[in-house]
TrEMBL record:
Protein name (database record): 2,3-dihydroxybenzoate-AMP ligase
Domain AMP-binding enzyme C-terminal: 457-532
Pathway: Siderophore biosynthesis
Keywords: Ligase, Nucleotidyltransferase, Transferase
Entry's EC annotation: 2.7.7.58
SUPFAM superfamilies, alphabetized: Acetyl-CoA synthetase-like (SSF56801)
Gene Ontology biological process terms, A to Z: siderophore biosynthetic process
Signal peptide, first to last residue: none
Amino acid sequence: MTTHNHFLPYTRWPKELAESYRAKGYWRGEPLTAMLTRQCELAPEAMAVICGERSFSYRELDAASTRLAARLARQGFSVGDTALVQLPNVAEFYLVFFALLKVGIAPVNALFSHNRLELSSYAEQIKPRLFIGSTAHPLFTDGARQSELLVEIGAELVLLDGEAGELGLAHWLGELDVDGATSPAFGPSPADEVAFFQLSGGSTGTPKLIPRTHDDYLYSVRRSNEICELGPHTRYLCALPAPHNFPLSSPGALGVFDAGGAVVLAPDPGPMSCFPLIERHQVNLCSLVPPAVSLWLQAAEADPSVRAQLASLSLLQVGGAKLGEAVARKIEPLLGCRLQQVFGMAEGLVNYTRLDDSDEKIIHTQGHPMSPDDEVRVLDEEGNPVPRGEPGALHTRGPYTFRGYYQSPAHNARVFDSEGFYCSGDLVVQDADGYLTVVGRQKDQINRGGEKIAAEEVENQLLHHPAITHAALVSMPDSTMGEKSCAFIVATEPGLKALALRKFLRSRGVAEFKLPDRFEILDALPMTAVGKIDKQGLRARIAQAIAGDSLPVTTV
Ligand code: OOB
């Protein structure tokens, strides 16, 4: 048994700024778990989580997470340890999250859509002592305990949700044994230390991790609650992947817990799953990505009677990717609720349209920063500020925007300026009132309906194919997803087929949503004057081909 008494390293805010964030009451020195303690005093029997036929009051949520925390402490886990967690949208996600926070174990909460490649990369970066997964995931069905992946992850304790027996998660969350064994004292990490790691959408070969402290994350949650007016009346449908920053903290489930409301879990954001849950549990708040909104609108258009199912819904938040104007306009008339646009990032900065904004602002903009201390700069290619109304690159820093990816000095040197501003890679226009509209992107990423794909990561995997010598992944326009991905490849062998190429990527552990939607074979990739792959040219080429224009393409 090893006891660690070190804190995880991370890039801190400069002392002066940290002091001012404290003086202004943004950072309160409280752990994220304080929200549970408080609700247990205020209204312990109020419903906190509804998951299928199961529900958990605040008292139960607190008690179950404490039981798991106590057992982990008994195993020698403590502040400074890390965990890799992968759970679907089930109550256990929150039980586990709070349990780990209570012991000071910082988790990476992988998305359920993540596959071998993401999990091993996260494990490589944080070296977790604990892995918590689910037998509902193809990687961890029966027999997975002997898998190479688990060996590679290298955790000394592996708990699986859905598994019976001593190493099943249910056992660890269950009533404490009567063997009288006591746990050593345990508690969360200090509020200005790493609470957990958020996932970056990525633009490089390896998925990067974002250290989030209790102080900064809790501030973002509380400020979101003020703007979105959450309270004990809030019944929030969590239909997006629970670990994502949007449904977790903007204001998301943590906002709901801090406000004393209830989180209703949906397995997916489709109307078939969500509409009945909204009606049954009288949901009044939900957050979605644009493609899901389109599905909801289609369902409401096809059968106007479904609107009755949505009667309780008062606010629909939409973010993660650009919401088209035409779609935005239909939300209120067809779904009978107000729209709020949310433009955020796991790295920090979140912008909201405000509840009392004009329709004009709500439909045309992605809102403005939530904190008065969010600093935003919109810069041209030379790094000079552009006039309001002109497009430029979004740079930001503030009380909940991180200062560096975990253990990535080289990458950090590229995406932070000398004053600690983070270059988000988004191109935005800021209007006279400070509202931002996202107009494009600099980072080498595809935003597939809110799911982010780092081009380089997929290209590296394609290059492992024996017949592929060059690969470039670019976005192509898509009417429902906004963007899909197209891989341009150069091959030494004729007759490669998309089906086989996807199968190859899958066999290498690439997540399903990262598999290219289309493959194009070229004799050579076009180059720019400075010798880089001309991705702009490739994007134009595929967009033209889709629009039915004449440029030759060889789709496989
Ligand atoms: C959210 O977080 P991430 O980390 O998955 O992705 C961030 C990126 C942004 O840099 C931007 O490129 C894009 O996603 N994005 C949007 C957007 N919201 C995010 N692009 C256009 N319009 C929007 N409304 O996606 C995220 C985190 C917290 C709250 C909401 C979204």
